[in-house]
């Protein structure tokens, strides 16, 4: 076995061990506290998670399946110029930025379930347009893709949190923090299998369009299951379907967005998630550059590396889940501070490493921090933002993130020096996020 195979095997074993340890710790904690087994409560908690996470796996699969092949289709199959490809990518982020202020607000007014179905429709349109060679159709698809991304990272979480509050499941069976950790775990497992399936489809049909058709199937399946299995909610604390007017929702959302805690949270999340978008674009080139400098001209095993990153991300989410299971005291802010500090260090150190394996490990640490970040940040947002405006606030929080990504990518240049400058800039942003979060602790 080579280096990357050994590391992937170690990470897989580590994750399996964490699942076993977490399960045994949960049972031991119940026995130690003398908590009687409640089969009905367990059934309610299991059904809630199963109903949400299965659909969530399908919607993130639609995203993960086609992600690795979008650039290749634009560049190699449709033979578009590099500048045109960059404009197509930018148009998606611009669309996401434009839709961010009102997409979630419409979800709060017309229903989060309806907005989740809208995601399936928008992403389905994006997949279909990839079959066309017409440039305007491709821009049309990127427009809907940007809207879909905004919906993916706002309305599904908003629906789940409100549904959790409506069901009020026994927290000894499943806490909201555990659900967030399970969302991250589900996403990473789905990413690994999506990579394998996508690669198999490309080889089977000798075309990179196969994963996009599979994404379309996932969108259709998810949309049907949402309509059949999920009930509508509007962020109300009761189960009534009466919703406030649009103007009242706007006032509530603006009130929430001007909350100092929400402003601090928005800044911190942008300082973390923005660098993660940049990391996705730069990690492969960084590893390739270090390998070439060492005199090795062999192709990197990108599939194994990607799977290792996903396993590292899963390990990060499992660590937070075990932490929540072992300690009753809420440590969300302290965990986020630690995550920001370690990630900042990971980016800074990566600019000084000339050894391929050391750089790979540094990137694994960054991915592990990503896995720890998302469930903790999701829990923090759920505590700060009220249910009635959650969809609108969550989508609006993505506006500065989309603007950040568009602006930074407009300044892209080739070369190691530029990439290292970007990584140092990311380290500085993460340090700023650390200071902001420490001020909230």
From TrEMBL:
Transmembrane segment boundaries: 6-22, 53-74, 86-104, 143-167, 179-197, 209-230, 262-282, 302-321, 333-353, 359-379, 391-410, 422-439
Coiled-coil parts of chain: none
One GO MF term: molybdate ion transmembrane transporter activity
Top-level taxon of the source organism: Eukaryota
Membrane topology: Multi-pass membrane protein
The keyword Repeat is annotated on this UniProt entry: no
Keywords: Cell membrane, Ion transport, Membrane, Transmembrane, Transmembrane helix, Transport
This protein's GO CC annotations: plasma membrane
Subcellular location: Cell membrane
Broad class of where this protein is predominantly found: membrane
Gene Ontology biological-process annotations: monoatomic ion transport
Stated role: Mediates high-affinity intracellular uptake of the rare oligo-element molybdenum.
Protein name: Molybdate-anion transporter
Organism: Trichoderma breve
């Amino acid at each position: 076995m080579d280096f990357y195979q050994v590391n992937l095997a170690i990470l897989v074993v580590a994750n399996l061990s964490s699942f076993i340890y977490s399960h045994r710790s949960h049972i031991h904690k119940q026995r130690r506290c003398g908590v009687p087994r409640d089969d009905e409560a367990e059934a309610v908690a299991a059904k809630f998670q199963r109903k949400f996470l299965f659909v969530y796996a399908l919607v993130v699969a639609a995203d993960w399946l086609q992600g690795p092949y979008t650039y290749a289709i634009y560049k190699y199959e449709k033979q578009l110029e590099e500048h045109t490809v960059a404009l197509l990518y930018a148009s998606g982020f611009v669309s996401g930025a434009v839709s961010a202020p009102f997409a979630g607000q419409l979800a709060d007014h017309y229903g989060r379930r309806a907005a989740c179905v809208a995601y399936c429709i928008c992403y389905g349109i994006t997949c279909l347009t990839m079959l066309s060679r017409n440039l305007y159709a491709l821009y049309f698809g990127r427009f809907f893709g940007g809207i879909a991304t905004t919906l993916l990272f706002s309305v599904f979480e908003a629906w789940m949190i409100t549904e959790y509050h409506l069901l009020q499941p026994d927290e000894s069976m499943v806490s909201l923090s555990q659900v967030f950790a399970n969302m991250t775990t589900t996403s990473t497992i789905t990413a690994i299998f999506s990579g394998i399936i996508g690669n198999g489809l490309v080889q089977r049909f000798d075309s990179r369009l196969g994963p996009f058709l599979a994404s379309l199937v996932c969108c259709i399946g998810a949309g049907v299951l949402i309509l059949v299995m999920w009930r509508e909610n509007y962020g109300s604390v009761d189960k009534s379907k009466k919703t406030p007017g649009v103007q009242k929702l706007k006032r509530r959302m603006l009130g929430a967005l001007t909350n100092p805690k929400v402003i601090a949270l928005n800044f911190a999340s942008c300082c973390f998630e923005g660098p993660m978008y940049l990391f996705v674009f730069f990690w492969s080139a960084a590893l390739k550059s270090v390998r070439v400098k060492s005199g090795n001209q062999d192709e990197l095993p990108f599939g194994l590396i990607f799977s290792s990153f996903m396993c590292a991300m899963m390990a990060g989410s499992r660590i937070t889940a075990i932490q929540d299971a072992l300690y009753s005291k809420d440590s969300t802010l302290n965990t986020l501070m630690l995550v920001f500090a370690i990630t900042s260090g990971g980016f800074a150190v990566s600019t000084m490493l000339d050894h391929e394996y050391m750089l790979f490990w540094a990137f694994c640490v960054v991915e592990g921090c990503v896995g720890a970040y998302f469930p903790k940040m999701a829990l923090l947002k759920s505590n700060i933002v009220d249910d009635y405006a959650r969809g609108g606030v969550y989508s609006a929080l993505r506006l500065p993130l989309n603007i950040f990504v568009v602006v930074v990518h407009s300044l892209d240049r080739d070369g190691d020096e530029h990439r290292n400058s970007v990584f140092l800039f990311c380290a500085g942003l993460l340090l700023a996020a650390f200071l902001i979060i420490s001020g909230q602790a």
